[in-house]
Write a structure and sequence with these properties.
- There is one protein chain.
- This protein has helices at 8-22, 120-132, 142-153, 160-171, 173-178, 187-190, 217-228; strands at residues 28-32, 40-46, 57-63, 74-77.
- It has 230 residues and is an alpha+beta fold.
- Strands 1-2-3-4 form a 4-stranded antiparallel sheet.
- A hairpin with a 7-residue loop joins strand 1 (28-32) and strand 2.
- Residues 196-220 and 222-230 have low confidence and may be disordered.
Length: 230
Amino acid sequence: MAHQSTPSSQKALMMELKSLQEQPVEGFRITLVEESDLYNWEVAIFGPPNTLYEGGYFKAHIKFPVDYPYSPPTFRFLTKMWHPNIYENGDVCISILHPPVDDPQSGELPSERWNPTQNVRTILLSVISLLNEPNTFSPANVDASVMFRKWRDSKGKDKEYAEIIRKQVLSTAADADRDNVKVPTTLAEYCVQTRVPSQDSSSDLLYDDLYDDDMEEDEEDEDESEMESF
């Protein structure tokens, strides 16, 4: 059997993982499911402060195809989520993860779909944005979509949607304890760029251990500008 060279997708994923470890997206923690498998990532999402998801610890898997970045990965929540754009099995329905085919039925423009210039960083930012601002035009969970619209249109007077989310947030505390993770609840904690200290300890990251009070000014400015984009 002929020797096969390393697929370009592995090289691309290795570079992305390194970039995300050196300059993380705030509110996320990323590790490999298995050290030897670059195609399966585990993501922990911290609920952004001042939203319904504040204090939440949500786990998900990103699974990459062999021809990445030419085809999009899949993003599936392991934590139970009640959301207009998340299927019952945890799969996230979002334009950026759909192949760039022309499908007039979907209501999506090809430009909104996946293309090889997208990356994990843009996916993570899209997912966190989607949590706070669901797309109710083509819902994956119709009941959650109806409930969200009632909550939004009543300006919070119809509390059913918000109460379900808060219950789910509270139920994630046990997972955070089990994983030895301190969930950020203030904007200052949330905006900290968590750095991976070394390859072999990356699977045991503690959010609070990586807090750096002496963070450089330019990093703080960068964090603030990213938060403003939400």
